[in-house]
Design goal:
Order of helices and strands: EHEHEHEHEHHHHHHH
Helix content: 40-55%
Number of domains: 2
CATH topology of the largest domain: Rossmann fold
Radius of gyration: 17 Å
Oligomer: single chain
Strand content: 5-15%
CATH class of the largest domain: Alpha Beta
Shape: globular
Strand order of the largest sheet: 2-1-3-4-5
Structural class: alpha/beta
Length: 222
């Protein structure tokens, strides 16, 4: 069973999420938290595999919670909950190592997929949300030149095929989608993605997508 912590200060939303997740049959909500500090304690105390963390919480907001979670409970994978797919602050959570984020108005099966992906060591963003997130990043400013140069340097470690995979990953495609585009099996693509993450030093595919955007190989939506 996948052990999940739900952190949200709205009891009705927490109850709804519990109902959805426990209907899946392979996951159980082991703890609930109404603020970020309680979420950190609950994740560690209940050894949660995945923490669903709302951004807007008292005491310690969701962004700070995600950052601290990596130190307090490194085995727990964080997925950010937000009402706004284009919220700029989500980028901070993703850069901090969150396994992705889902919208509060998403379909129940999408929430279940997000938790399963995080538990499997993957990340979940729908293609639409990925485009919003990448598009929300600011264009290159003088103070960002060094960061973009570093990103481009990281990408020189990749083979041409790995760069192709990264480009499609940054578009928000799943492993199956990338495989279909490149006429390769999903298993082969999974191996490529793992290799790309290792070479780039990224915790998950979300961080890899952001690195690709920094390097200029993933364009924001027009």
């Amino acid at each position: 069973m996948i052990r999940v912590l739900v952190a949200d200060d709205e009891p009705l939303i927490t109850a709804g999420i519990r109902t959805v997740l426990e209907s899946a049959g392979d996951m159980v909500v082991v703890a609930e938290a109404a603020d970020g500090r309680a979420a950190l304690d609950g994740a560690a105390g209940h050894r949660a595999d995945v923490a669903l963390v709302d951004i807007d919480m008292p005491v310690l907001d969701g962004l700070a919670t995600v950052e601290e979670l990596r130190h307090r409970s490194p085995h727990t994978r964080a997925v950010v909950l937000t009402a706004y797919g284009t919220e700029p602050n989500v980028l901070r959570a993703l850069r901090a190592g969150a396994a992705g984020f889902v919208l509060k108005n998403c379909a129940p099966d999408e929430l279940i997929r997000a938790v399963r992906a995080a538990h499997a060591g993957d990340a979940y963003l729908s293609p639409q949300v990925t485009r919003h997130v990448l598009g929300a990043l600011p264009g290159p400013a003088p103070e960002e030149t060094a960061r973009r140069a570093r990103a481009a340097h990281h990408l020189t470690r990749l083979t041409p095929r790995e760069t192709q995979v990264l480009h499609l990953l940054a578009e928000g495609l799943s492993n199956a989608g990338i495989g279909g585009r490149l006429h390769m099996s999903e298993t082969t693509i999974k191996t490529y993605v793992s290799r790309v993450l290792t070479k780039l030093g990224c915790a998950n595919r979300v961080q890899a997508a952001l690195l690709a955007r920094d390097a200029g190989i993933a364009d924001p939506p027009h």
